[in-house]
Structures are given as C-alpha cells and as structure tokens.
Amino acid sequence: MKTINKKLTKYFALILLTLLVVGCERNLDDLSPASYPANPDIFIDGFSAGLNYASFGGAVPTAFDVDQEVTFDGTAASMRFEVPDAGDPRGAYAGGAYYTDTPRDLSGYNALTFWAKASQAANIDVIGFGNDMGESRFQVTVEGLAVNTNWKKYIIPVPDPSRLTAERGMFFYSEGPENEKGYTFWIDEVKFENLGTIAHPQFTILNGESQTDISFIGVTKNISDLRAYYNLPTGVNQEIMLATSYYSFQSSDVNIATVSDEGVVTVVGGPGEAEITATVSGVAAEGKLTIESIGDFVLAPIPDKDPADVISLFSDAYDNVPVNYYNGYWEPYQTTLSADFEVNGDHILHYTDFNFVGIEFSSPTIDASQMSHIHLDIYLPNALPGDAQLQFELVNEGTEGSALYSRTIPMEQAQQWISLDIAFADFSGLNDRSKLMQLIFVNENGNMSSFYADNIFFYNDGTPPPPPSEPETAAPVPTVNASDVSAVFSDSYTVIAGTNLNPAWGQATVVSEIQIEGNNTLKYAGLNYQGIELGSSQNLSAMTHLHLDFWSANSTSVMVFLISPGPIETPYTLTVPTTGWSSIDIPLSEFAPVDMGDVIQLKFEGNGDIYLDNIYFRK
Amino acid sequence: MKAKNTKMHLSLVAAVLVLLQLSGCKTDDFQKLDERNWELVWSDEFNGQEGELPDATKWNFDLGIGDGGWGNAELQSYTKDPQNVSMDGKGNLLITALRSDNSFTSARIKTQGKFSQQYGRFEARLITPYGPGIWPAFWMLGNNIETLGWPQCGEIDIMELRGQEPDIINGTLHGPGYSGGNPVTKQYGLPNDRFDNDYHIFAIEWDTDKIDFFVDDFLYHRVKREDVSGEWVYDASFFMLLNVAVGGNYVGFPTPETPFPQQMIVDYVRVYRETN
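^ Those are the sequences you sent over. The predicted structure of the assembly is below.
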C-alpha cells in the first residue's frame, strides 16, 4: 500500500507540474526533477505517507495518540499528547520524533506550521523539525512554545530551505510536567508551507555578541548559541535554535585560526588575530569570535611526583579522583564562567569573569591526611593591573569549616605558568583534612580577570606525615586473669572503688576521659604532674608488677610514681614519645622503698599530652 | 512633459503585465481604468545626504506628544532628531520609531503651508515598519483644518497599517458624519506577502466625482461623491503627511515583543495633476 501511495503521489505531482507548465508557459527545461517527494504534509487527518513515530528514551511511550474527538476545525483527527505528572512510573515526560524512511525534498517550503491547543496554558519545552533520530543535521527547535486552551496557528520558520533536499526529520516535541502536573495538548494540520508572511530573518552566533578569546596554537572551540529570529505574520519575532549545518563559517585569517563546517574553531598559527564570522544562506549572522593567538602554547610543567604520593583533582599526568564539578556556578554572587580548553590533548581549566569559583569533590570526599601539600599550576593570560591576591580555601566535610591561604601573584608573573606548592600547614584553620570536599579560588583584590589552571593535586613531599595527636586505636585488651589483678583504670577489670582520678593537687594538667574506639582512655593534656588517689590503701605484697598502657606523640618526659604514706614515693621513667601504644609491666621492686603493704596514691610527672589505659597491679 | 511620457509608458507596461497575468495563473478581474494623463507637479525623491533632515522647503514637522496623543492616545513623542527622521544617503527618507524603556520617539512630517493641491494623483513608494502597536501612515488633511477643524476639513488616508497585520493596509476617508470609528474605509491585503518585505506604491487618484485608492497601481477602493454618508468635503486643497505612530486607539499598545527600532523607508512622494 505504501508503494502504491507513493506512486500515486508522484503521478499526481507530475500532473500538477504539467498543469503549471502549461498554465504559466514555463519552459520544462527550467525544472529539474526532484530526487525525493516534496510532500509537505506531516499530519493532516492522520499520518502522511511514509511517516513513522518513535518515542524518546525515558518518555512515556504512549503519550502520543491520534484523537478523533478533539480536532482543529472539526477535521477527522488530531495528534494528542498526554504529558505525565511528575513521578509517573511510565516516564518523566512526553516526547518523540516523526520521521520518514525515505527522505523528502522540503526545499520548496520556508516554514513548518501547525495548529495547537492545550487543556491549560503551558509552554511546550521543545518542538520543531529536523530530528531524524540520527545526526539531525538540520534540526530547528523552538523552546518554550506558549499554548493555551484555544486553537492557534504556530509557525516554525525554515532557516534555509535549500538545505532540506533530503530531510527525514519531519516533526518532534518534548514536554515535561508543568509545575509537576501533567496535562494534554493537541496538534493538528502539521505541514510545511511556503509563507510570504514571515520576514526579516536575523541569525546569530554566540548570542549575537562579539567575543574575544586570547588563545594558542592547538586550542579548539565550538561556536555555540546559534539562533535565528523571524518576524511572524503577527509582527512579533519568533526565536528558533538551529543546527550548525545551516551556517557557513568563515575565518578572516586561516593562517591563525580555521573553522570547520561544524563550527569548530582551531587555532593553527600566531601570534596574530583572526575573526570568525558566519552566514546563513548568504545573510551575515550577528556575533563574532575574535581569536587573539599568542602562538605556541607553553604547557604547564609536567608534574614529577610519584603517582603513589599523589591524589589528583585535575591533571593529564595522573588518574584523577572523582570530581563533582570544576565550576559550581554558585548563585547568586558568582560571576566566574568556564571556558576550559584542550591543547594537543592536554586539558586546561580556564576561568573567566573571575570573582570566585569552587571545585567540589564530595562524593566521595578525599582523605588527604597522608598528604603534605597541594600543588597547582596557574597562568594569568591577561596583563595584571597590579599584584593579584589569590585566596585558596579548602573545605573539609563537617562543622570544622574551611581553611584559608592567600598568595600574592606579582604582576610581572602574568602570562607565564606559576607553579604553586602550598603546605597544608600554611592553611590557617585546617584541623582535619581527612574529608576534604571543596577547593575554592577567590579573586581577593579583583586584579585577576581570568586564569588557567592545570595539575591540581594533593601530594606528599616525602617528609613523614606529622604523627597523629591522638591514638587512632584503643589500647591493647589485657589478658591477665581478673583474679590476679587489682585495677586502677581499665574497662577490662573492676577498679578499686572510690578512686579519685583527678585530685586537686594544684596541678596544671587537664584530665579527661575520652573514648577511643569505644574504649575509655585517660587523657592528660599539658601534663606537669597529676595524681591518682586510690579509693583505699592497697596491700600489694601479693602483686609483682604495675601495668600501664601509654601513648604520647609529643611528650619528652614522663615518670610514674607509687606513693605510700610519709609520703614515700619513687619514680619510674617511661620511654616517650611512643610509636603507637606502649605497654609496660614494671616490677614493683623498682619502686623501693615505697611500702608495698600500704600504697595509697599514684603520680605522673612530665610534659606533653599523655594517654593512659589499663593501669593495674598484677601477680 | 518628461513625466507624462514616462507615465504613459508605465501604463503600457502595466497593461501588458495585466494581460500576462490573465493568461498566466492569476484570476483577478481585469481592471478597466480611465485613460489619464498625469503631469508631475511636486515630488521629493529624498536624495539627500545620510543623516540630513527632510527638505525644509517641502516639509514641516509636527513635534511633541500632541493633544491627547494626537487625538488618538498615541504613545510616541515626535522629534526632528535625525535619528527619528533623516535621509539614508541611498535615496530614501527614514522615519524611525525608537523605544527607550517605556517611552517612544518617532517623527511626523507634513507639507502644510509648503504645498497643497486639490485633485490629482498623490503617491508614495515605501516599505512599511512592522510589529504590534506600530502605526505608519501616508495621508492627507484639508488645508482648511485651522479654520474648519477636523473632521470638517476632511482626511484622506492613502495608506495606514497596523504593525500586527503587516500584510494589510487600509485606505480611508474621514469627514463630517463619517470619522473616527465610522469612516469610509477598505482594506487591501497582499496574498502571501507583507508590506514590509519590499517597496510598494500607495496612491490615490482624486477628481471632482471620486477618490480611487491604489496599491501598486491596483485599484482596490473607489469612493464616489454619493458613497459617503455625510458631506463630501473633498473639493478643496489638501496637504500630505508621513508618520510612524506608536500605540494609539487605532493600533493598540506595542508589546514587549514588538521589535524596535522600526523604520518606514520612503523612496519618494510624488504629486501629479491631470492634463488633457
């Protein structure tokens, strides 16, 4: 049936052509036969010949249907689109494309037109033609098409009909819920027409603006924001987004920069300047890109750190950890834009209109506790009006907040790579770097309008990481039988009742009990001396040793004393600082002449921060 | 004399064109028009330098916001600033309506006190502006407006256009008993085209019995003396006006979507009288 229809159509077209030729006495030689059918109809009262429909991925597959009740002007059928509610399990939106297997020659038409109405006032997200479910080289899109409850005729201009000699994408749409709610819209009488009533096309690239890029050999960049404006028969302008293929791009100096048919600009020479402009069917587009090529790009120095010592956020020299984004576009105060580029395979971050910008790496956060420095290379492409003040802010997850470091960039260091290696120790307020999640750059004095950045990574410079200031593990669990133990402080044993761990002896030491891995641990901060009063006098004549687990990263001297009335006291020197927990069993004979039949107190003297656990006497 | 020859030649070409169209694809009725011999008596070809104001020997300005928006609640203020009214250096007069936030400037020029004529052919070749709320006009008023007032003086609107209908012009007579919202008027629409796409010639041919309205020498509207409901006030000298109004009762407000600036591009204005 399809074939027959097609043949009929061709036959009819031939008759029409003949009539026209006879009627207007035009010379048949002037007319070259069209390669493809010029059928302008898409959906009049049903699918036109050869038309297929495919729903877009993620859309409700059944959103589109043919409606024979609600139609334009009482015609036989219309297209009905049911936009789902937000959260509809069948799909998030309504969307699909109408395309043909055999291309059509649409070069004789300058507009796609249709009638539409909706169950409520709404804006259809995108609607247009040229989506062939493939390359869609000549796609034209209207965004936010306003529909309401009345039938109204809509016109989508064809920018350059001569391009559409073999088009397969007849019509497409995509629309999500309005304020989370679904609704229905209808479209009817969809066809291509040749309208004399659309006028004054204006084409733009780069939003119609004149943009200047300081650039280098090897940089590539896409010409974006391709739009056109047509004045409709109502006197108002319609904006359309159009595919690159409608444009012809030109470079004023191909020795400096070339531009491909796809609008990809490549800087090939310099120093020098090239202007990239565009036309659509011979009409100059507004907007241009001026490339100011500096010439050969000098890449940032290649990092030489051992990958094993590096956690990289952005570098082609290392594997980068997951980064959420390199520019958060934080509203409402951020002005910084990104114009990242690639030179000979090396990716460079490029921040423009710089006031502040953040890089986020929160999923997962980065544990940089084994790292000592942050490295980055920056390049300020514009001459500086004065010294710049660049602030770095590192944010660790949690309430500890952020840490700041500020660096002066002398104005004479502009236009060259500056390698910065900043020790974490130089960041004020960086108490913890085990859950780093953001790195923020701030243009403190406003002198840096833009900069490039590369090789942003944390690294260990070879010096051992500073020891932790607190035990990361609990003290070893004692194995001595409880019946052989008289305990002063331990989670493993019943301790001597009534023992005072912090008697007021006029000491400066700050005593606290903290939990380490769920284990109660005694902490002496800022030790000068510290006593323990046993709940009752202890006869230790059956015991042989005093056991202690102790830990200190910063103490250079600690002595432990046993005391019997008199007082008679004897010190025993502990070896500090420790590497992890030290466990010691001190023979009680070391404390002579203390009376082991009447021990009433213990005492510690020394300096630094000491952690103690499992203080007990044993057999 | 030169103009006369040209006109006759033009008529001949027009006749041939009409014939061609008849035998071609058009189905328009053949227009059997009276033979006329027109002699050019006044014209402005607007061949001045770019930025030059209209020829002061031929044109006056209406300035400001008029009384009640020139009687029509129009929004623009008329100026004689070259950015609103000047030659383009390419043979055209540009009348440009500009928007600055919510205020508008434009221009209105007239031959009052410089030139007027009773009967004849009055024509302008121009490209209209467009957009909702834009109201260009080529029109005439009776010289006796200052003594008789409006509408007793009579008004002949050779071309008026609503910018939201860029394919339709209106030819209209206002006189006593048939003015304002009740004039003698007719529309002419361009089939599948619009008046801002290219130049078109708007003209009237006026004699003791009637006024004929033409677009591109196509007669679309004939008003005979006996057709008007009130007094026929067109046996006096009239002067010409060209302007671009913004807003007003006739056209409605401009919208945020109305493109600005808007220009009426006038190639020439010519006035003929009939000779035997």
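Residues 40-274 of chain B form a domain with the Jelly Rolls fold (CATH 2.60.120.200). The first helix of chain B runs from residue 2 to 23.

Shout if you want it in another format.
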